[in-house]
Design brief:
about 500 residues; alpha/beta; 2 domains; about 30% helix; globular; RNA helicase
């Protein structure tokens, strides 16, 4: 099988720590890990906006289409091509509801359909009507099954454009997730006539955020430390917030963030709605619930509990392990690049130093790659995230910074170059492929020291990680081999 390779990889655009190591930007001529061009992503992929600056997101221009009474408003929508890839029951096992069943504003429905969201997923079916009723929610659902839409749709439905104040907060644990959620929110609300969305995260210019908040903002999507700082400074006025969302709630209620979350909640009005969403919990469910109620007893009003986690791993992700020594890992990775049909891949390491060393090694092998980790400057992290999401490179080497919530639908292969120690970390890593019920591949490079972790994670997650075969069936992870009817396509 031919593999696109590049010579003399170079650093582009930014100083040497920018995370972008690659050769030619021409699209690859065949399968494998090399090259990388703008055609890597499926048409249903969310396009990252170019309007993100210093953590703030300005609304995209609204459509100029005037809809008159009696018009067939759907015929004027710019709906992306139908996604014909096979989907698993993680997203298809629904009750048959339609978005129009929830009595949403027509302008919001227009944005939903133009995102390519055809029907609600199971978590959206369970969540949206309860959230619209004003009740608190504690929801548990798998990675990549539509949790962002489950809370953004009712959030946007309840925004009152006549009020020039912050009405909703979405708190997320990482900067990249904040930027991603803000982009989805901007796109879904683009027909609503002026919903103002702002992303604010640590590592960006505080003065820019202060100036932005001097103007009208309806929805703030933020990391905990930055929004708490803005609230304490009196810049972010949250006295009229009617809804707060904790995305990746298990992380936000962990020791890293729980004190900040309690402070943030203390500034909000007593009559507000709290929505919590998560795919994993740091301990057993029962133990987490105890911690959760201890933290939020004074804040929650009998939350409605949703649990769609009868099994933990995504049905569409096939998991393999390759037993290697530490010295064999790079050779094994090179072999995988040459044999797999990679659309985009994410390769995980356990430290920032190993991320940079591996990225350099991959470039020396002739493959294009980006890298990202928490010690990089925020402007470089933003650019890597934006460019990788837009398909400018096939491979991304990263730490666990990139494990939570990041939705890049073109990623069909995840490789654990370093095997994680915790089951929840493993679950979030492999959940970067197989997004929204599609197919993906997770390959784990296992050393002698990892053998007990492998067995422990299998038992903890109730899943099977199989030995890697000599040839991996492309129908397990390559979208072009499947249509919606399940028939194999001939390339």
């Amino acid at each position: 099988m031919s593999t696109a390779r590049t010579e003399n990889p170079v650093i582009l655009g930014l100083p040497s720590q920018n995370g972008q190591i690659r050769g030619s930007v021409k699209p690859a001529g065949g399968p494998g890990g090399g090259g990388g061009g703008p055609q890597l992503q499926p048409s249903s992929q969310i396009k990252a906006s170019s309007t993100i600056n210093n953590g703030s997101s300005q609304p995209m221009p609204t459509a100029n289409t005037v809809i008159k009474p009696g018009d067939d408003w759907k015929k004027n929508l710019k709906i992306p091509p139908k996604d014909l890839r096979m989907k698993t029951s993680d997203v298809t096992a629904t009750k048959g509801n339609e978005f129009e069943d929830y009595c949403l504003k027509r302008e919001l429905l227009m944005g939903i359909f133009e995102m390519g969201w055809e029907k609600p997923s199971p978590i959206q079916e369970e969540s949206i009507p309860i959230a619209l009723s004003g009740r608190d929610i504690l929801a548990r659902a798998k990675n990549g099954t539509g949790k962002s839409g489950a809370y953004l749709i009712p959030l946007l439905e309840r925004i009152d454009l006549k009020k020039d104040c912050i009405q909703a907060l979405v708190i997320v644990p990482t900067r990249e997730l904040a930027l991603q959620v803000s982009q989805i929110c901007i796109q879904v609300s683009k027909h609503m006539g002026g919903v103002k969305v702002m992303a604010t995260t640590g590592g960006t210019n505080l003065r820019d955020d202060i100036m932005r908040l001097d103007e009208t903002v309806h929805v703030v999507i933020a990391t905990p430390g930055r929004i708490l700082d803005l609230i304490k400074k009196g810049v972010a006025k949250v006295d009229q917030v009617q809804m707060i969302v904790l995305d990746e709630a298990d992380k936000l209620l962990s020791q890293d963030f729980v004190q900040m979350m309690e402070e943030i909640l203390s500034f909000l009005p007593k009559q507000r709605q709290i929505l919590l969403y998560s795919a994993t919990f740091p301990l057993s469910v029962q133990k987490f619930m105890v911690i959760f109620y201890e933290v939020t007893t004074s804040h929650l009003q009998k939350p409605y509990e949703i649990n769609l986690m009868e099994e933990l791993t995504l049905k569409g992700v096939t998991q393999y392990y390759a037993y290697v020594t530490e010295r064999q890992k790079v050779h094994c990775l090179n072999t995988l690049f040459s044999r797999l049909q990679i659309n985009q891949s994410i390769i995980f390491c356990n430290s920032s130093q190993r991320v940079e060393l591996l990225a350099k090694k991959i470039s020396q092998l002739g493959y294009s790659c980006f890298y990202i980790h928490a010690k990089m400057r925020q402007e470089h992290r933003n650019r890597v995230f934006h460019d990788f999401r837009n398909g400018l490179c096939r491979n991304l080497v990263c730490t666990d910074l990139f494990t939570r919530g990041i939705d890049i639908q073109a990623v069909n292969v995840v490789i654990n170059f370093d095997f994680p120690k915790l089951g929840e970390t493993y679950l979030h890593r492999i959940g970067r492929s197989g997004r929204f019920g599609h197919l993906g591949l997770a390959i784990n490079l296992i050393t002698y020291d990892d053998r007990f972790n492998l067995k422990g994670i299998e038992e903890q997650l109730g899943t099977e990680i199989k030995p890697i075969p000599g040839n991996i069936d492309k129908s397990l992870y390559v979208a072009e081999y499947h249509s919606e009817s399940g028939e194999e396509l001939k390339l």
